[in-house]
């Protein structure tokens, strides 16, 4: 049945209010307007940023909302003015828009209704749904043969971690690195360090069960802070004689900064939060350390995603190895619980047949 120009009724996981379970509802997805694209989501996965909005940030003005931003799908129809995409294109929605012409637009748009109420869009994507509408600047066209239930992970976690090492920290061949936190982003950072030619990659996590997975991605050494009585940055400095670059996630901020060699060490903040705070003294940076942030691993949305999908198709990066669970959209809360309990790397939810 031709659905172009018509409202589509489909299933989506709706967050009605903060700190409450997502509910599978039938929603109405409006046709795309000017410069918009409607996408049939084939696969989506749960990222901690979704959980942050639901359980930590809990923005009262951001509900009800369809969460989700790490996904892949197929163009169903396009609105007036869309020139980059045609129905049938394989695409990945982008939470980080790339229009190549103007400033980024606001995150919250309204394209959905259920039970007579408008539903907010999350990060310009809202992929916990069988269909979604996004601006064409929030969409990347990818290789036509790419398996959507795999490359959906490139839409957030893999690019974020991999790019934090390759693009932001600019890890040099022969250098030593440490990655704090071995979730999907941390493992992707390990993979990026290896791709950049690091000779030593130290994986740091309080859960030693993650070390075997980190080894697959290139980690050479493993440190559990709970095994040491001294501050972890002292342990790492002793291991490396202070000669390294250090991509890291948010929970280890001060320790990671102090782990780097004062004269040229590089520390990169990857995890997003507005709850946790950190600080440094001028003397921590004056000798020459660099402290950086990394949004989406320093990739440009459209160009970076297409490039990373091509690397996957050329077998230059790993993607399948991040997937620990395959589920359906109706199992969304099971996937959320796995993420909250750190019992999965990525759970992929299939929403539609490819």
How are helices and strands ordered from N to C? EEEHEEEEEEEHHEHEHEHEHEHEHEHE
Biggest sheet features: 7 strands, mixed
Strand content: 25-35%
Assembly level: single chain
Low-confidence stretches: 103-109, 247-251
Rg, nearest Å: 20 Å
Average pLDDT for all residues: 87
Q: In terms of structural class, how would the helical and strand content be classed?
A: alpha/beta
| Tertiary shape | globular
Instruction: Give the number of DSSP strands.
Output: 18
Total helical segments:
10
Helix share bin: 10-25%
Span of the ends, CA to CA: 17 Å
Family: Belongs to the zinc-containing alcohol dehydrogenase family.
Organism: Neogobius melanostomus
Cofactor: Zn(2+)
Domain Alcohol dehydrogenase-like C-terminal: 184-302
Question: What would you say this structure looks like, in words?
Answer:
By secondary structure, the protein is an alpha/beta fold. It has helices spanning 48-57, 148-151, 157-168, 184-195, 211-217, 232-240, 253-259, 282-285, 301-313, 332-340; strands at residues 8-15, 23-29, 36-45, 65-66, 70-78, 90-93, 110-114, 117-121, 131-135, 139-141, 176-180, 200-204, 221-223, 246-248, 266-269, 290-293, 323-328, 346-350. The strands form four sheets. Strands 3, 5, 6, 9, 10, 17 and 18 form a seven-stranded mixed β-sheet that branches. Strands 1-2-7-8-4 form a five-stranded mixed β-barrel. Strands 11-12-13 form a three-stranded parallel β-sheet, covered by helices on one side. Helix 8 links the parallel strand 15 (266-269) and strand 16. The two termini are 17 Å apart. Mean pLDDT is 87; it is low at 103-109 and 247-251. This is Enoyl reductase (ER) domain-containing protein.
């Amino acid at each position: 049945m031709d659905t172009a120009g018509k409202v589509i009724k489909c299933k989506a996981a709706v967050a009605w209010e903060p700190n409450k379970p997502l509910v599978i509802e039938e929603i109405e997805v409006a046709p795309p307007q000017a410069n918009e694209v409607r996408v049939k989501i084939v696969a989506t996965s749960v990222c901690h940023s979704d959980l942050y909005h639901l359980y930590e940030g809990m923005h009262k003005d951001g509900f009800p909302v369809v969460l989700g931003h790490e996904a892949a799908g197929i163009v169903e129809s396009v609105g007036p003015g869309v020139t980059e995409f045609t129905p049938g294109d394989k695409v990945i929605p982008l939470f980080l828009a790339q229009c190549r012409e103007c400033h980024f637009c606001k995150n919250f748009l309204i394209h959905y209704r259920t039970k007579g109420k408008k539903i907010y869009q999350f990060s310009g994507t809202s992929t916990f749904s069988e269909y979604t509408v996004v601006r064409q600047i929030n969409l990347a066209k990818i290789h036509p043969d790419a398996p959507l239930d795999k490359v959906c992970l490139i839409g957030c976690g893999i690019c974020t971690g991999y790019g934090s090492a390759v693009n932001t920290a600019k890890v040099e061949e022969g250098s030593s690195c440490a990655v704090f936190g071995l979730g999907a982003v941390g493992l992707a950072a390990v993979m990026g360090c290896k791709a950049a030619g690091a000779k030593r990659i130290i994986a740091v996590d309080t859960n030693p069960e993650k070390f075997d997975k980190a080894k697959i991605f290139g980690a050479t050494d493993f440190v559990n802070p709970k095994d040491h009585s001294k501050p972890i940055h002292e342990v790492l400095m002793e291991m490396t004689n202070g000669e390294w670059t250090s991509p890291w996630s948010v929970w280890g901020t001060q320790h990671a900064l102090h782990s780097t060699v004062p004269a040229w060490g590089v520390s990169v903040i990857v995890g997003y939060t507005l709850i946790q705070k950190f600080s440094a003294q001028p003397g921590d940076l004056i000798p020459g350390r660099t402290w950086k942030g990394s949004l989406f691993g320093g990739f440009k949305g459209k160009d970076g995603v297409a490039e990373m999908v091509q690397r996957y198709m050329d077998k230059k990066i790993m993607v399948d190895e991040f997937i620990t669970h395959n589920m359906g959209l109706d199992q969304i809360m099971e996937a959320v619980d796995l993420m909250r309990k750190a019992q999965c790397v990525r759970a992929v939810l299939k929403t539609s047949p490819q």
